[in-house]
UniProtKB/TrEMBL annotation:
<comment type="similarity">
    <text>Belongs to the ABC transporter superfamily.</text>
</comment>
<dbReference type="InterPro" id="IPR050319">
    <property type="entry name" value="ABC_transp_ATP-bind"/>
</dbReference>
<dbReference type="Pfam" id="PF00005">
    <property type="entry name" value="ABC_tran"/>
</dbReference>
<dbReference type="InterPro" id="IPR017871">
    <property type="entry name" value="ABC_transporter-like_CS"/>
</dbReference>
<dbReference type="GO" id="GO:0015833">
    <property type="term" value="P:peptide transport"/>
</dbReference>
<keyword id="KW-0547">Nucleotide-binding</keyword>
<dbReference type="GO" id="GO:0016887">
    <property type="term" value="F:ATP hydrolysis activity"/>
</dbReference>
<dbReference type="InterPro" id="IPR003593">
    <property type="entry name" value="AAA+_ATPase"/>
</dbReference>
<dbReference type="GO" id="GO:0005524">
    <property type="term" value="F:ATP binding"/>
</dbReference>
<keyword id="KW-0067">ATP-binding</keyword>
<dbReference type="InterPro" id="IPR013563">
    <property type="entry name" value="Oligopep_ABC_C"/>
</dbReference>
<feature type="domain" description="ABC transporter">
    <location>
        <begin position="5"/>
        <end position="257"/>
    </location>
</feature>
<dbReference type="GO" id="GO:0005886">
    <property type="term" value="C:plasma membrane"/>
</dbReference>
<dbReference type="InterPro" id="IPR027417">
    <property type="entry name" value="P-loop_NTPase"/>
</dbReference>
<dbReference type="InterPro" id="IPR003439">
    <property type="entry name" value="ABC_transporter-like_ATP-bd"/>
</dbReference>
<dbReference type="Pfam" id="PF08352">
    <property type="entry name" value="oligo_HPY"/>
</dbReference>
<protein>
    <submittedName>
        <fullName>Peptide/nickel transport system ATP-binding protein/oligopeptide transport system ATP-binding protein</fullName>
    </submittedName>
</protein>
Amino acid sequence: AAPLLQVEDLKTHFFLGTARPFGSGRRLLKAVDGVSFSIGAGEVLSLVGESGCGKSTVGRTLTRLETASGGTARLDGREILSLSQAEFRPLRREIQMIFQDPFASLNPRLTIEQTLAEPLRIHGLAQTRTEARALIAETLQLVGLDPKVMERYPHEFSGGQRQRIGIARVMILKPRLVIADEAVSALDVSIQAQVLNLIKDLQRDSGVSMLFISHDLGVVRHISDRVAVMYLGRIVEIGTRADIFDRPSHPYTRLLLSSIPRIVPGRKRVEDLGEPANAASPPSGCAFHPRCKFATDICRTTQPPAHAVDTGHLSACHHIEALQKDLA
Ligand code: SF4
Ligand code: MG
């Protein structure tokens, strides 16, 4: 079957600084620079990388919060990036975003009922208040909250509860694609697992497709069907969860994995993550080369194409063979 979402050669570029006469002195930031992936119906693809790698910009471009500079994104075969905002409006219900900071995204002056009734009204999903309240009560239960909380205000809730409300606001619309951007990063570690399990359960039960954006491979480990690793605007490795965690085939993926404490129990970071490069002045050739212990001359001059390590497992590295010997 065709994937629900097919993204091809997506580019989102920004100009930095203020415009000067004759276009001088403006630097181009290639936040997303040729990203391709697909997400099947009911599938969870995680997008992982350090802060500034462009992963949030991918999510924001797909929800039309940013404007794409190039490429295509098809939802059910329909190209969405070239639609005008008016043409895109009917699709807003289908593509929903869960944000990192649930408090910032909840209006402190609205009760939970009002908060959840608003999207229902905007998308015409409830005709009467009774109908809306029934849907709201059902959705609150779904996210593990007592329907009675409807009468309360956001400040009365803990961070974890607020994120449950944020999730309810998305799920009440029965979207087809959910983009979760660092959905548990702002929560206490003790709460993270609970909210992650909730997201996974809701995703599995509803069959919604998900793009799960996170800087933390430890967090994506249990939630993902497939994982894409991003570095400076590009996907450097993509594969199934087992490909990425058991057979990582890009030096950057290895570096990220080495920084998850749980993977090497009893040891601290086995490698220093080093300074992430700056997207505004990316290194030549393979952008990862200043941090890579496998780098050779070709890495400094030539951008590596994506090589198939196996079916559906791609790595953009010149030296996959050397890497495989290193792992053995
Ligand atoms: Fe390292 Fe070269 Fe592979 Fe880039 S292409 S990850 S620098 S070995
Ligand atoms: Mg981000």
